[in-house]
Amino acid sequence: MLRAAVTFGRLLRRAGVAAGPDRVVEFIRALGELDPARREDVYWAGRTTLCSRREDLELYDKAFRAFWEGDERRALRAPKTRISFAPMDDSVQPPKKTVERSERGEEAVRLRYSPIDMLRKKNFALYTPEEFAELNKLLADLKLSGALRRSRRLEPAPRGRHDPHRTLRGALRTGGEPMRHRFRRARSRPRRVVLLCDISGSMASYSRVLLRFMHAGVISGEKLEAFVLGTRLTRITRELATRNPDRALSEASGAVRDWSGGTRLGDVLKEFVDRWGQRGMARGSVMVILSDGWDRGDVDVLAEQMMRLSRLAYRVIWVNPLKAAPGYQPLARGMAAALPHVDVFLSGHNFESLEELARAIAGAASQE
Questions:
Q1: Tens-place pLDDT, residues 171-205
Q2: Residue from 30, 20, 27, 9 nearest 75 by CA
Q3: H helices of 151-264, where?
């Protein structure tokens, strides 16, 4: 049974399920507490321990039928053979399939998986030029909307504050008798989102993708401002407003003079707060800083400016691609100085982390 459980884990990994060795160990422990002779016990022990995502359930069901209810001996002797799943009922359809015939003439369904799922989890630093082209399609569909805030302006609503003017105007149609009372409530509007992207040499593997992420937010029509920072601060909102992503990034690169240079986070943030932040751009906004935290300047200046920024902004989100590394700790002086003034600390090393960032920006309204 131990050998069968290990082989079943290999089968699931080749099918696309993240059933690592740790999950296989938990599967074996669960089988020790249950009856391996009962199909239901084996099924639910594996589904509980080997599946971590909703999309894994369909793949797990097909693999379970092929391995435990099919030719088990053949699977044990040849664990590296391709996975051919027997057809299931018509209510469950695999993501992509091609119908083939077995030696007996029976119909088999062989799964084919798109590389898009791999790109979502792959580190941006390991991308090839072809994968960057595929990533542009994913980023084009990414929606970046800011959090909502209550405005002083009012709008009609089914309930809320009584609206006497609209109520009286409606009463004129019924001979002066107010048959229906009208109400209004405060209108919601999106908060401004301000993105500050580090383009120093240490961020060279990620700055291109992060700029493309900023471009998707600018052209979405939301209230969004884009800056890049290195040894100086450069506003590139106007350059990124072009719909063509290649042209937008080219114009943004032409406007930046300190590309892939050093980083002086404290001085640059001070310039932003003095020039734009206190004048209204950072007040009540969602501030997003995309940087690895490496700083050549004075960390005391950085800590002071982050404190000023946190007092002005509604939320401060820091995105550090190095956070995804196993055993990461914010030991860089700049990162350690800024982290006490950060509300949300995320990684930005792959597409899934950028989706998490988009949810964090929009989800700030739920904390209001």
A1: 887 877 777 888 887 777 778 899 999 998 888 88
A2: 9
A3: 164-171, 204-218, 245-255
